[in-house]
Give the backbone structure.
Amino acid sequence: MIVFRKAANAGEWCADMREEGLSIGFVPTMGALHRGHISLVEEARRRCDVVVASIFVNPTQFNNAGDLENYPVTLESDQSMLRSAGCDAVFIPTVQEVYPDGQQAGRVEVDLGYIGACLEAEHRPGHFEGVMQVVKRLLDVVNPDKLLLGRKDYQQCLVIRRMVEAYKLPVEVVQCPTVREADGLAMSSRNIRLSPGARREAAEIYRALQAICRDWREHGPHHLTKIYTDKLNAFPQIDVEYLEITDSESLRPISAWSEAGSAVVFAAVWAGGVRLIDNATIY
Ligand code: AMP
């Protein structure tokens, strides 16, 4: 596996691959890799000739300085996991390399409409602007055929799809399933910050999502989210930031099941001071 630190070198290598007629699958990450990330690399391996990953903790998508400072960094093990998964090249740039003209430069202007105003966008102002900025920059370097993203960050997938459409970028966005721990907790780089007690309680998040997916016919959406918000908040270390049921495409909240052709439940939950998100498709 080749490690690139400079955008120019990574870009040149990717261009050479394309010239040889090889397709490129790209997996952008912020490191602290786990099996969820690796599943994306494996899917890229199945779909493309060449797999490129990136590891970059993007400062412009953090709306909280403490969260950025505490973001786990495990570069050594990240590289060995990528190598074992069959990744061909990894781009590990510095902030200066990604934003040579400063962090305000290269901001992406895309009218996201409601999907850029609800759920994570509402609770983490500026987050998706930072995500679009870094993903656009990375796509410009790598120029992949396929971009592999995790459904765990469902709203992020919609936002990036919208950006790809807006810029008419010649890349296919591939959404991959959420990989979970044995007790159902969605794998996340932030999970290693959970205390043992908070870790145990964090498994309740997916239990609640599963229960909603099971019982939805018996209650209306508002009633269900109220019941499960209260159930989750009854755990001492859990504090629900939001639990919402929305249309799967518009992300507009629904008040009756007939309002959506397909509905998704979204959760953002603090577990012992660590913010976790998850989602599940109801129907
Ligand atoms: P991150 O490092 O958190 O920015 O995530 C990088 C990519 O991995 C994103 O496309 C995420 O949606 C994806 N990802 C994160 N956690 C998981 C998971 N548990 N299962 C599948 N994909 C994931």
User: Anything to note?
Assistant: Residues 56 and 203 are 28 Å apart (CA to CA). The pocket of adenosine monophosphate is lined by residues 29-30, 36-37, 39-40, 149-150, 152-153, 176, 178-179, 186-189 (CB under 6 Å). Residues 196-215 form the longest helix (20 residues).
